[in-house]
Structures are given as C-alpha cells and as structure tokens.
Amino acid sequence: MRIYTRTGDAGQTSVVGGRVDKDDVRVEAYGTTDEVNAFVGEAIIRMDPERHADMIRDLTEVQHELFDAGGDLAQAGRKRQYKVTAGMVDRLEQWIDRYDGEAPEIQRFVLPGGSPVSSALHVCRVLTRRAERRVVSLAKEQETNDEVRRYLNRLSDFFFAIARAANVRDQVDDVEYKRGGQVFR
Question: For labelling, which of 6, 87, 165, 179 has a CA lying 20 to 30 Å from the CA of 97?
C-alpha cells in the first residue's frame, strides 16, 4: 500500500459520509485533536519508565481515546456508533483527582513550565483547549458526538493535574504567576 493517494491534491479530503474541503470545520476539529495526540507522544518520550510508569500507561490510553475522538469527529452524514462515551469522561475525573492529590494545594495561577515532562504536558493542555474550541464550532454547524466535547474539556484539566504531579515526581516546583495575589484559598 502506498502512503500517498493523490486524492487530496485538489484541497479536499474524505470523511465518513463523503468529501469535504481540507479547511472544513470538521477537519479542523479532528485535525487539532490529532495534534494533541502527537504532543502526548512527545510528552511520553520525555518520561522515565519507572518514575512515570502510571503516567505513561494513562497517557497511552488517552492516545487511543483521542484517536477514537477523531473518528467520531470525522463522521459527516452517515452515522455509526460513537466511541467516546461518558464513562471515559468519568474515568478522566478519577485520574484528575488521583494526580491532583500528588501536588501541593494550589495558591496562585501556575505558568506552563517546570520539568521537561511538565512543560510537554502543558503544551498538551493548551492544544486540547484549542481542539475543544474547534469542536464547539463544529457542533454549532453540524451534528457531532457531544461526549467528545466533554472529554476534551476534562482532558485539559487532566493535563493540568498530571503536569503538576510530574513536577512533584521530578522534584521541580511549579512556576507560579507572581504578578497577582493568592487566588485560590
């Protein structure tokens, strides 16, 4: 099988149910979700296989689920059963609570940074927020799986919690925003 097909040379791509322009809101939504997935892989390769073993396991599961989310977002017209479910969102909440329990109580806003692992996870967080915005735009125009939007919303919170836990494990302090006062009590 060849990697190139030449079918997209005119600026269109295939989605489940037909062809659309490559800058279609649906393509933007699943394409940005794919960007998140690529950066999750980047974060994983920065991790120590022993110190971050549970993080690697959880992030690998997230990569599979992001691929599922992309598949759900690529459906236009013809419908099949969606893969992203409310149970995935619930599980993310459990993971958030677990990783949040590793970090000290938050007092100020946290800037992206700290350890290389934490920095990579913060990139995942902001890209996930962008993907979520793209899915919101898509949902205004076309039918889509609402659970993908909820999943991405929770996933960005997960990346924040796991980034802070990574800093703790790597013995690096969070980088606090110093120009404001204590905002969390």
Answer: 179
Q: Which domain holds residue 68?
A: 17-171
We report the CATH number of the domain holding residue 39 as 1.20.1200.10
CA-wise closest residue to 47 among 116, 96, 125, 126: 116
Q: What is the pTM of this model?
A: 0.92
Residue given tokens 């295939």 in the structure block = 14
Query: Does residue 11 sit within a domain?
Result: no
Task: Quick: pLDDT tens for 20-52.
Answer: 666 688 889 999 999 999 999 999 999 999 999
Structure tokens at 59: 């992030």
Q: How many Å apart are CA 100 and CA 80, to the nearest integer?
A: 36
Nearest Cα neighbor of 134 from 34, 39, 8 is 34
Tens of pLDDT along 126-161? 999 999 999 999 999 998 999 999 999 999 999 999
**Domain assignment present for 37:** yes
Residue 72 near residue 84 (C-beta atoms within 8 A): yes
Q: Is residue 29 part of a domain?
A: yes
**Mean pLDDT computed over 76-97:** 91
**How many domains would you assign to the chain?**
1
